[in-house]
Amino acid sequence: MLRSDLVQIVGACPTWLRYVRGWDLASTEKERVKDDPDYTVGTLAAFDGESLWIADVVRGQWSALERDRRMMDTAKRDGPGVTVKIETVAGYKDTFTRIRGLLAGKASVRNTTPQGDKVSRAAALEPLFEACRVKILAAPWNAAWLAECAAFPKGKHDDQVDSLVLAAVTGRRRRMKVSL
């Protein structure tokens, strides 16, 4: 669905764009203790009107305490100009409130409630992939990210795609809108 073979790997991303970091949280203890648990992923992305730029991906299979520490460290590194978005469905509501408190003064934290299934939400990105309008910063996370995008929606994990959708797709009509 997401043609990772058409993604452009670039040496730098524009600094003038308004970036958003979307966090997909591995939410339950059950998910964290299975043999290959879900990942918590934070994707830093921006849309310039033509291309989607992915500047950073933070990913790990962490405990809740380690996840929170990584999120705080990432927010400090990103700076206060980066908006942080977190899903607030079911068990995430309390987590969102706690994380918003942890990141106070480091980032503007917004909640988002996803509409539709994850394949439908990711479909908003498909035309950008097809048009070679997805650009990622050359980094160690590239291989895992590209592999997961290529396998979506049938791959073992979809956390990086979910995180990308959170960072890149907002609004009721799923238009590309990164700035708030």
Offer a quick outline of the entry:
The protein is α/β, with parallel strands linked by helices and 180 residues long. The protein has helices at residues 29-33, 64-78, 92-102, 118-122, 126-130, 142-151, 159-168, and strands spanning 8-10, 20-24, 40-47, 52-60, 83-87, 108-112, 134-137. It has a 7-stranded mixed beta sheet with strand order 1-7-4-3-2-5-6.
Count every helix, treating DSSP H or I runs of 4 or more residues as helices. 7
Task: Return the string of H and E elements.
Answer: EEHEEHEHEHHEHH
Major beta-sheet overview: 7 strands, mixed
The CATH architecture is: 2-Layer Sandwich
Shape label:
globular
Mean pLDDT: 87
User: Uncertain runs with pLDDT below 50, 5 residues or more?
Assistant: 171-180
Assign the CATH topology: Nucleotidyltransferase, domain 5
Strand content: 15-25%
Termini separation comes to 28 Å
CATH class: Alpha Beta
Bin the helical content. Answer: 25-40%
Radius of gyration: 15 Å
